[in-house]
Every structure is written in C-alpha cells, then in structure tokens.
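ok so I'm stuck.
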Amino acid sequence: MNQNQKSSAERSNRSFKTAFKKCAVKLLGNSKYQFVSIPIFAILLSLIAGAIVISLVGANPLSAYYNLLQGTGIMPKASYAGGKGMLTDFASMLNALTPMLFASLAVAVAFKAGLFNIGVAGQMLGAGFFATILVGYSELNGVIAKPLVLLIGIVVGGLIGAFIGFLKYRFNINEVVASIMINYILQYVISFFINTYFVDPVSRQSRYISDAARLTLMNVKFMGLKLEIPLGIIIAIAAAFFIRFLLNKTWIGYEIKLVGENSKAAKYAGVDVKKNIVLAMLISGALAGLAGVTYYMGYFASIQPKVLASLGYDAIAVSLLGNSNPIGVIFSSLLITVISKGSTYMSSISGVEQEIASVITSMILLFSACGAFIKYLVKHAEIQLDEMGDVSAAASKEDK
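replied:
not stuck anymore, here's the structure
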C-alpha cells in the first residue's frame, strides 16, 4: 500500500469515528433525557449480544424473542389448552411483576439516599411470615383480610428497614453488613418456626394460606378463561408514581436526595442526616414488605423454609437498569419479568435452553451497570467534537 492509499484509509477511519461520535452525542448526549436514553441503549446492546448467543446455539434469535413475548401473553400462541388463552398468560405475568416492582422501588428509594438496601429479601420474608401467621391462617373474610395483609407488610417491612437505618446512624454500622446479617437471622429463625409449628407434611413448606387472605384471585372465570388476577399490581404502579412525587415534589424527597448526593453538604445546610437515613430505610423497608406479601401471599401461597427469594437480590440490578427512577423501574421490572416468565415457552418451542434467558437477563443488567461508563464516553466524545470544532474554526480564520 502506497502513502496516498494509507492517508486515504486514515482519513476514512477518522471520518467514520467522527460520524460515530456525532451520532452517539446526538442520541445519548442530552443530559435531560439520559436517564431514559442510556438504559434503552444498554438494553439494545444486550439484546444484540443475546441474539449472538442464541445464534451460536443454532436457533433463530427473532423467533426466540418472539416466543418470549408469546410466553407472557404479549403475543398470541399458535394454540392454547382448555381454559387458557393470551389473557391468561398476560395475567400470570402481571402476577409475577407485582412483587418485582415493589422490591425494585424499595432498592431505588434507598439508592436515592445513598444507601444500599441489600436486605430486601429478608424484609420480604419477615413481612410475608407475619402476614401469613396473623391473617393467612385466620378465618377473617377477604374484605378485612386483604387490606390487613397489606398493612402488616408495610409495618413489618418498614420496621425492619428503619432498624437497619437506626444501626447505620446510631452505631455507624454499614447498612450492607446489617442487612446481610438480618437476612440470615430472619431466614433461620422463620425457618425454625415454620418447621416446628406451621409446616405442611406433604410439601415441606408452610401450610397454604386461606383464599380470603391471598392477594391473587385464582382461577377467576372470564370469557371462558381461568385467570390469575393480582390485586397488588394497581397498588404497585400507584406506588411508583407516589414515590416519584415524593422524591421530586416534596421537601422530604429533596432532603433524602440531598443526603444521598452529599451527606456532609446536607448536614452543613441544616438537614437532619440521621433522621433522613432512618426515614429512607423506613420507606424502602415498607415497599419491600409489600413485595413480600404480594410474593408469599399472592404469587405463592406458602413459604419455603431456609430460602430467601432471589427476587430480593434481582431487584437491585433491576433498579439500576431503571436508573433508580420510579417510572423507569416500572419498565425495567416489566422487561426482566417478561424474559423470566417467557423463557419456559421459548425453551419448549425454539429449543433454546431456558438458561439462555438468564444469560440475556444477566447481560442486560451487566450493560445497565455500565451506564455511568457509557455516560462518561458520550461526554468525552462531546468534548472531543467541541475541540475539533474549535480547531476547524481557528483554521478557517487563519485561511482568511
């Protein structure tokens, strides 16, 4: 290759890089919308990576993704069994979405205060257990039992969260350490009581709760179909909008976010940092408690001893994917739930192993965790383009 060809190739390469940077800055550079644009970009990257993985195992990525949507009732299946339909699958997906949304909101609120609530699973278990033994095994009718279950979830989860916040400010015990230790305590203490007093000898789980106390209406007949109707989904969506209002439009939310951004500056400005740490963990715990009762007394109807729900840990990554924005968390929770619930049908139809869905989910969460790095790259590209513009302008003036 002669010198002219090398120079031409270098110019083409620089032109391509410049065009790519301009495109990235245009699509992702607006700081006002980066809380939406960067997570969407991360999701697209992960879906492309997932398509490559699916192709490597010998399946059609488009068909596999379509099967995911079919498995959750977003798209119709080729055929259905008796009493089943597209609406049946969609209602089942909403049933799984409800506790995921509550749990992800719990993590998001703690994040806003600069706290890492890794104890969501334990708070879920505690709330679910107390609601089970106090209401689930009672003879109360549904009109009283269902609101009481929600109230117990809020109170128990909130108290556990507030206790972690108290340990943080009073004894400077890191909330991660406190959360993990409390998770273990709740896991084994509750397991002892279930195995001693409330175990079902057949399933080896806690005895099933009454239908009156369950937050999911099972086998509801509608247009010839049998549906699972999650009563908590409306509350979960309303909670997301309420948390958004609380954080963005009230002095409580302002102080919580100020503490999260810079606790020393907040203290200097007269904000009670200790109070807001406890308050943020109280709200976070209450949301985790709602996740617990909708999980153990909605999606399921019993508790498995010695097991913490993986959903409590998945919610951490889902909250990051939603950029800890309450509205963003709705969509990130929906995305992860669709992949999780649709994986079984995808596996049976496309022949793609069900574990591939977990790989796709992991890649989505991995790319979303790189959001700050993507933001840095976009900002760096913007600075480079500005410098190139200044150089071009200076060169034009010299020519004149």
